[in-house]
Amino acid sequence: xxxxxxxxxxxxxxxxxxxxxxxxxxxxxxxxxxxxxxxxxxxxxxxxxxxxxxxxxxxxxxxxxxxxxxxxxxxxxxxxxxxxxxxxxxxxxxxxxxxxxxxxxxxxxxxxxxxxxxxxxxxxxxxxxxxxxxxxxxxxxxxxxxxxxxxxxxxxxxxxxxxxxxxxxxxxxxxxxxxxxxxxxxxxxxxxxxxxxxxxxxxxxxxxxxxxxxxxxxxxxxxxxxxxxxxxxxxxxxxxxxxxxxxxxxxxxxxxxxxxxxx
Length: 263
Hints:
Elements: E1 2-11, H1 15-31, E2 33-35, E3 38-40, E4 46-54, E5 63-66, E6 74-83, E7 87-96, E8 99-108, E9 115-123, E10 134-141, H2 142-149, E11 163-169, E12 172-182, E13 187-198, H3 203-212, H4 214-255
Antiparallel strand pairs: 1-13, 2-3, 3-4, 4-5, 5-6, 6-7, 7-8, 8-9, 9-10, 10-11, 11-12, 12-13
Helix pairs in contact: 1-4
């Protein structure tokens, strides 16, 4: 097994801000209505590239299609649960010429988010391609994250990482754990730790490969974490710049905005 570690400093998002912003998303969604297959905003504008194919709008069993009908890549979303007092659970289905995927996301206490859980799997077209098959699970305990980020300097880290990801493939298995610390200037210091190993009879072979590829693997992991941190900072900076009212306007604008035309 190979263990990879890297830490980055990123902009923090406080618990109160998330509690203030989260209801905006659900308020916008619940302000829409379905007119046949067309989903419309309160002022009657259609939500671009979104169609209700089955069921009642925002009710368990509702099935939506995203994208344009002539796209080779098809995406759908099924509502499995929609209760703002307890949980919202959505299932995303992707069908492309070379890959299929199914991902389920569940958010506990949507108006004051506490826990995000995800699971999914992918497979090749018509179930073919053994090497294209994989599965994964992710869990983000937001309450535990903010508690960990509030620990005083020198305090031992939380025994359990607030964010965990586990990926399985025929050839190997990877686990990722994220732990935050309070840093200066309203930022977080986040430690990312990944462990990679082979599975079953492939473990000895994978161990040799991971040993030989240790340098490039560590550089690749470091670069991936740095890029993720950069993307996070850009998104959070934009969020803080907009503020709650700006976020509300941006969400409403994006709902009726079509995708840019391509040549």
